[in-house]
Amino acid sequence: MGKNVLYIEDNPDNMVLVQRALESRGYILLKAENGEKGISMAESEDVDLILLDINLPDIDGYEVARRIRASAKPALAYTPLIAITANALKGDAEKALTAGCDLYMSKPINIRELWARVESFLPAPIKS
Ligand code: MN
């Protein structure tokens, strides 16, 4: 059963929050602090779901999503991809979906919402 979650996020506080939340349910968190590293890890590692920040220091999350979907690694066409961003502007959700994301979540991150969203794609290895 898949349980490897890749989180592409430059904010260390969010990274720690999500790591604690997901590890407490038995998921394994893979971490990338910028877009290029995230794409590279998605291609080289066994990744079952991707959480994606939109405001990244190099390329933005929309570009990351497009490149992941266009990857030569076939599984990345279907790997669940959830955008998480502070951008509250109208249209951002639609932009994320157009770029290839399956879902869009707003910051601040709500842990219960995160668990529910992740579990809708990957059953939690540890039940609460
Ligand atoms: Mn960011």
Features of the shown structure:
128 residues, alpha/beta, Rossmann fold, 5-stranded parallel beta sheet, 5 helices, 5 strands, 38% helix, binds manganese (II) ion
Q: How many whole angstroms does the radius of gyration measure?
A: 13 Å
Bound molecules: manganese (II) ion
Low-confidence stretches: none
CATH superfamily: Response regulator
Strand count: 5
In CATH, the architecture is 3-Layer(aba) Sandwich
The overall pLDDT average reads: 94
- At the third CATH level, what is the topology name? Rossmann fold
Order of helices and strands: EHEHEHEHEH
User: Tally the helices: what do you get?
Assistant: 5
Strand content: 15-25%
Q: Which descriptor suits the 3D outline? A: globular
Task: Tally the structural domains.
Answer: 1
Name the structural class: alpha/beta
> Order of strands side by side in the largest beta sheet?
2-1-3-4-5
Describe this structure in words.
By secondary structure, this protein is an alpha/beta fold. It has a single domain, classed as Rossmann fold. It contains 5 helices and 5 strands. It has a 5-stranded parallel sheet, sandwiched between helices. Helix 1 links the parallel strand 1 and strand 2. 28% of the residues are buried. The site of manganese (II) ion has 5 residues, from loops.
